[in-house]
Amino acid sequence: MVYQERNIWSSLVVSVIGMIVYVIVTLQVADGGPLTDVDWVPIMLWTIGLSIVGAILVSITWGIFAGMLDPEGVGKSDQRDTDIAQMGGRVGQAFLVIAGLGVILLCAYEADWFWIANTMYFGFAISTIVGGIASVIAYRRGLV
Amino acid sequence: MVKPTRVTNSIRAIREAAGMTQADLARRIGVTRQTLIAIEQGRYSPTLELAFQISRVFAVGLDDVFQYPEEG
Fold this sequence. Notes:
The structure holds two protein chains of two kinds. By secondary structure, chain A is mostly helical. Chain A has four helices and no strands. Chain A starts with a helix and ends with a helix. Chain A has helices at about 5-30, 40-70, 80-110, 115-140. In chain B, helix 2 (about 20-30) packs across helix 3 (about 35-40). Helix content of chain B is about 50%, strand content about 5%. The mean pLDDT of chain B is about 90. Chain B is mainly alpha-helical. The interface of A and B includes residues 2, 76 and 141 of A.
């Protein structure tokens, strides 16, 4: 597995875990009450912060072990990595656009800030996850 | 669903005939071994520049390395 593919896997796994943890914590804090009463800001910021740090740590740790097995492959990337990253970015971007449009609509209807922020958060998260899945498939099945 | 390419190649046969490993060829053309494997198996279409680099390593023409079927 090449350096870039490891990074994509790290980001993908951490994003999925982060999103699941965020949903569980938010629902627990709501405790059956309305979601809009939840103090979502610290939960969301901690989730985003820990996801970023987690992805970096997983990538570094994985890279150290991979480097022990294949010292020549450390940090190497080429045109195929660039092509796959661009394709994954394009696939993921569609979900950012959908989330952006959703935010505009929610603002137009003066929805609660909870829904506006969460629409954007899930737009980012799903964009990362779907783009990551597309990239991993391209690494495994091919990009022609 | 990934659309399969109609371009095929003889890199593996030529490389083995030249007694070269995948790691050797990958190093010569400046890609990772995984990328070379993907090209050999038809899972990645190389750029034109990379295709020329590959054929130049073997000192053969581009048509000897890469093939594209005739229409009809």
